[in-house]
Amino acid sequence: MKRVGFVGLGDMGMAMALNLIKEGFEVRGYDLREERLDMLEKAGGHRAASAGATGEKADAVFIMVMTGQQAWDVVCGEDGLLKTMPSGSTIILTATIKPAEARALVAPVADAGIHLIDSPVSGGKGGADSGTLTLMSASPQPVFQANQDVMQAVGEKIFHVGEDIGIGQTVKASLQALIGSTFTAIFESLVLGSKAGVDGKVLHEVFTASGVGSPLLANCSKLIMDRAFKGTGSQIGTMYKDMGISMDMAKENGCAMFTAAAAYELFRSGISLFPEEDNWSIVKLLEQIADTEVRW
């Protein structure tokens, strides 16, 4: 059975690491927080003293950090993976970063004789917990095929989106523009119906049964009406960061993004007001403006 490293044991990373353990892989993980390493050990994993230490004798190492700079440090830093991973092993970059930041890793990784898969994920904490994430993976086909076993341990729908590193991040940035815009449309629609006097339960039942019904809509609507704005695994800072990548990509490619731009500004306002809360907290700003509250 393969030995797998995992760097970044936040809500998403920990869930993914636990699924790898459940599938029988030997997992060695690293996070800056001791309590996350304790959780990993209790589940049958092994703690590493540094990011680089996760790569010792590893066949593959997942990276699930927040920023491109963190990804660079994990791979190329003083205690990075390139110092420890054996030739022929694979780095699987599941973090969401800028396409250019992913491409910057290509040369140093190749020079070390290591493979790289650019594979951001979608599906949130629920998908991470259940092992049903969607992976959008870019790499040479032989590398992609050789790592199907570890990728299938964390994901259900695994797409090979291209050969070139950076394409995975490009697909994810396009997707996040859609998801972020969808979130804010849901927030506004629920507030509109509530202000006009419709019960939240009615809104939820009709919206989710309509042509735009989806697991995203059902989950988002329920969390808002439950007033669950913190600890749901969808921190507002992550979506704000991701949409910033989407907007930067739009600027670089000369694309007009009217809807996504408005959604990004709502997320900017939301993170200013509720920096420690989750995406759904933005609805509280809209409720304040409309003098209403969305509840069951």
Protein described:
By secondary structure, the chain is α/β, with parallel strands linked by helices. The chain folds into two domains: 3-164, NAD(P)-binding Rossmann-like Domain (Rossmann fold); 170-290, N-(1-d-carboxylethyl)-l-norvaline Dehydrogenase, domain 2 (Orthogonal Bundle), CATH 1.10.1040. Helices cover 51% and strands 14% of the residues. It contains 14 helices and nine strands. It has a six-stranded parallel sheet. β2, α2 (34-42) and β3 form a beta-alpha-beta unit. α1 packs parallel to α6. The radius of gyration is 20 Å and the shape is globular. The mean pLDDT is 97.
Can you lay out the helices and strands and say which pair or pack?
Blueprint: E1 3-7, H1 11-22, E2 26-30, H2 34-42, E3 46-47, E4 60-63, H3 68-76, E5 90-93, H4 99-103, H5 106-111, E6 115-118, E7 121-122, H6 124-130, E8 133-138, H7 141-146, H8 148-152, E9 155-162, H9 167-195, H10 200-209, H11 215-225, H12 236-253, H13 258-273, H14 282-290
Parallel strand pairs: 1-2, 1-4, 2-3, 4-5, 5-6, 8-9
Antiparallel strand pairs: 7-8
Helix pairs in contact: 1-6, 9-11, 9-12, 9-13, 9-14, 10-11, 12-13
Model regions low in confidence, pLDDT < 50 over at least 5 residues? none
Rg, rounded, reads 20 Å
How helical, in percent, are the residues? 40-55%
Question: In the CATH classification, which architecture of the largest domain applies?
Answer: 3-Layer(aba) Sandwich
* Amount of beta strand: 5-15%
Structural class, please?
alpha/beta
Which outline best applies? Answer: globular
Average pLDDT metric: 97
Count of distinct strands: 9
Strand order of the largest sheet: 3-2-1-4-5-6
- Output the helix-strand order: EHEHEEHEHHEEHEHHEHHHHHH
At CATH level 3, the topology of the largest domain is: Rossmann fold
Distance between the termini: 49 Å
What's the CATH first level of the largest domain?
Alpha Beta
CATH evolutionary superfamily of the largest domain = NAD(P)-binding Rossmann-like Domain
Tell me the number of structural domains: 2
The major beta sheet can be summarized as: 6 strands, parallel
Count of helices? 14
